[in-house]
Design brief:
The protein is α+β, with helices and mostly antiparallel strands. 29% of the residues lie in helices and 26% in strands. It contains 22 helices and 33 strands. The protein has a 15-stranded mixed β-sheet with strand order 1-2-5-4-3-6-7-11-8-9-12-13-14-17-16, sandwiched between helices. Strands 23-22-26-31-28-33 form a 6-stranded antiparallel β-sheet, with no helix packed on it. Helix 1 runs parallel beside helix 5, helix 15 (424-441) packs antiparallel against helix 16 and helix 16 (475-489) packs across helix 18 (510-525). The longest helix has 18 residues, at 424-441.
């Protein structure tokens, strides 16, 4: 094997296994990405994503991608293997923590993007080629092997005949041989039974609806798994599993849960985030998640998994902390971006840690520590306590802030339970007590929302979060914020007016208080384009199942066309037949009609509603229609649209193909008032009196372009 390599900055790209052709490529998209990472600093990626308005730019460039790994206890002594590193969206987060990262990537172009993106780092190298070829030559043992969005493709790149029966199992077995003692394989992958797929999101790899749930009957090159399926796969490979549950999913995670810190009811409300493809929404996912949480089955319907697989335990001290939960505050200006983790040590003691995600966010966390000290003194004679904090240092350098972990229930959870159990008046009394406390103590903490107050088993109220401080803050604004976010997170639970009344909030000030909230959010977010804003800019949207059924009810059976046969006595219900056609997702209808002997003409009724039909092909290229012809398209304002074809003698089978779209009758009537000539109606739109409609027009496929 000829050794070939290329150097980009401090990064070596090993090309010895590269075939010279990128089997998988997104074409011009990758050229654009390469130009960006080569010519633009990373701090501008967020702005560029906002301008590009594409899923590709968001997926490959967003630093949110790194959230899936940066909470893991990777240490500066660890060596990491990242398979399928792609454009390096996760590589940088790994390199921030590990001693060295070895990337394996099939695509040379993507490896170039990764290299240019991280060219100033000296702890990354990249090997380009098929994993199956490279794996035989890997001699190191790794503390972590990462498969982020990769395991599901094992059927494509594990090609040896002996592995064909189960390439996913073969992949894991191969990787176990490259693990150091206590090493872990870390796989990020979609859950085939994830809530968003049940509700109507397309399968990520095939683009179809319910392909994973239906067992990928149309392909054998990609496969995702249920939790149980992954556990069985790992067990067969001789591996143990620890599951994490990234939310909304592993690609752009905001929160990562575990079996020891599962989500609470009301916590999963940020669900509609389909940037890549349109979808439908069969049900309210937030409510469905709440029910799954109540039933104890959230792990089975989590949208995706991050699963850690290992042969044996890592040898660590009891003081070593492992993560149970991680929340990323990315939707902010960089100076306020932090990560909040819940950790547990070998003695089962839990900790809350807050880390700066950017260098500029360090001062924000230091201010939080100062606030803890000051508020503790200010409220020392109050029944409300402040969660204790202490500075966290590593090697003498500030690393974050450690907070006391409190057992109990948030004030928000208590209010929700009271309201749902019929104790609304008790809930309103608590709201009144809260408002009275705020007015009496006039704290500077703008972030005293109900979810940031923990009620411990001794009944004490504890302030757990105090990020946003303002000396001399208006107590009415603090009260307004607490009520506003409670209503936002629990829509329909209780009328807002009842909360305002219980808190004695002056509703005449609502306009000013809303403006104050907008000003605070502008301060927090700055010019940073959040994922929510990204969705507002270029999200693909979706249609609810209710809207689909209501809007398209007349077309729910477009394959069920009515066909009348005339054998000499005209059309009647006695010679009506219904035929089942082939129908695509684009509403292209195609079917073949066996013709009885002696048939002279047929009448095809596509549906029983006003509609538009574009005739694509037919055995007889000309027809008479009771609608308005516009090229190959016929606009039917009648509830009984008809195509009439004269059948040549000897024709045994009649083929017809068309696309179908429903139209609203009232809209048609409004437009019809402007028509002056039904032969050319859509070109007219002149404000003249509507003429009497012709009963039939003619459509012809002859001498017309497709």
């Amino acid at each position: 094997m000829e050794k070939r390599s290329e150097t980009i900055g401090k990064i070596n790209i090993d090309l010895s296994y590269y075939s010279g052709e990128d089997v998988y490529s997104e074409g011009a998209v990758e050229d654009d990405l390469l130009a960006i990472v080569r010519d633009e600093p990373a701090r501008r990626y967020n702005e560029i994503i906002g301008r590009r308005h594409t899923w590709n730019a968001l997926y490959h460039l967003s630093d949110v991608r790194g959230n899936i790994v940066d909470f893991l206890p990777i240490q500066s002594k660890h060596r990491v293997l990242e398979i399928g590193a792609g454009c390096g969206a996760v590589t940088g987060a790994l390199a921030d923590k590990a001693a060295h990262v070895t990337c394996v990537e099939l695509s040379y172009k993507r490896s170039l993007i990764n290299a240019y993106r991280h060219r100033e780092r000296d702890n990354i190298d990249i090997i380009v080629g098929n994993f199956e070829d490279i794996e035989r030559e890997l001699t190191e043992e790794y503390d972590y092997v990462f498969l982020i969005g990769v395991l599901e493709y094992a059927g494509s790149y594990i090609t040896k005949k002996e592995d064909a029966a189960d390439p996913y199992l073969s992949m894991l077995k191969r990787l176990t041989g490259h693990l150091a003692q206590g090493g872990e394989i870390v796989a990020g992958i979609e859950n085939k039974y994830g809530m968003k797929y049940l509700s109507g999101c397309r399968e990520d790899h095939t683009g179809g609806f319910y392909d994973g749930i239906e067992g990928y009957t149309g392909t054998d090159r990609v496969r995702t798994f249920s939790k149980n399926g992954l556990m069985k796969l790992a067990k067969n490979a001789g591996l143990r599993t620890v599951f994490y549950y990234p939310y909304p999913d592993y690609k752009l995670p905001a929160v990562i849960f575990s079996d020891e810190r599962l989500p609470h009811q009301g916590e999963l409300t940020d669900n509609i985030r389909n940037y890549d493809a349109s979808r439908f929404v069969a049900f309210d996912e937030a409510k469905a998640f709440d029910e799954a949480i109540r039933e104890g089955i959230f792990p089975e319907v989590s949208n995706s998994f991050l699963v850690l697989m290992s042969k044996e335990d890592r040898i660590e001290s009891f003081d070593m902390k492992r993560p149970l939960y991680s929340r990323h505050s990315d939707n902010r200006d960089p100076e306020y971006q932090i990560r909040t983790d819940i950790l547990v040590d070998g003695y089962h003691k839990r900790y809350v840690m807050k880390y700066p995600k950017t260098s500029s966010a360090r001062s924000h966390l230091l201010k939080m520590y100062d606030t803890s000290v000051r508020m503790t003194e200010e409220l020392k004679d109050s029944p409300v306590r402040v969660n204790r904090a202490k500075l966290l240092t590593v090697g003498g350098d500030f690393a974050g802030v450690e907070f006391e972990y409190l057992e109990g229930r948030t004030l928000e959870d208590v209010l929700i339970d009271y309201i749902r159990s019929g104790r609304k008046e008790d809930a309103l009394k608590i709201v009144a007590q809260f408002a009275a406390f705020i007015r009496a103590k006039r704290p500077a903490d703008l972030d005293l929302i109900f979810s940031n107050i923990m009620i411990t088993p001794d009944g004490a109220w504890n302030i757990t979060d105090y990020e946003w401080m303002e000396e001399g803050a208006d107590p009415e604004f603090i009260i307004y914020r607490s009520l506003y976010y409670f209503v936002e997170e629990n829509k329909g639970l209780i009328p807002t007016e009842e909360l305002y009344e219980a808190a004695r909030l002056d509703t005449r000030r609502l306009s000013d208080l809303k403006e104050d909230e907008l000003a605070l959010q502008h301060k927090i977010c700055g010019d940073h384009i959040s994922l929510k804003k990204m969705y507002d800019i270029f999200g693909k949207g979706g249609v609810t199942l209710g809207r689909a059924v209501t809007g398209f009810a007349p077309l729910l059976r477009p394959e069920h066309a009515g066909v009348y046969f005339d054998t000499g006595s005209g059309f009647s219900e006695d010679n009506l037949q219904h035929y089942e056609a082939e129908v695509g997702d684009d509403m292209r209808v195609s079917f073949d009609i066996p013709l009885p002997a002696g048939v002279r003409s047929i009448r095809v009724d596509p549906v029983e509603t006003a509609c538009m039909v574009r005739l694509i092909s037919a055995t007889v290229p000309e027809a008479t229609v009771n609608g308005h012809v516009c090229g190959r398209t016929v606009i039917f304002e009648t509830e009984d649209p008809q195509f009439l074809f004269t059948i040549p003698s000897g024709t045994e089978v009649f083929h017809i193909e068309y696309t179908l779209q429903m139209i609203n009758r009232d809209m048609f009537d409004d437009i019809g008032q402007k028509f002056t000539d039904y032969e050319t109606a859509p070109r007219g739109f002149l404000k003249k009196q509507r003429p009497e409609k012709k009963e039939y027009d003619k459509i012809s496929l002859l001498d017309r372009e497709n």
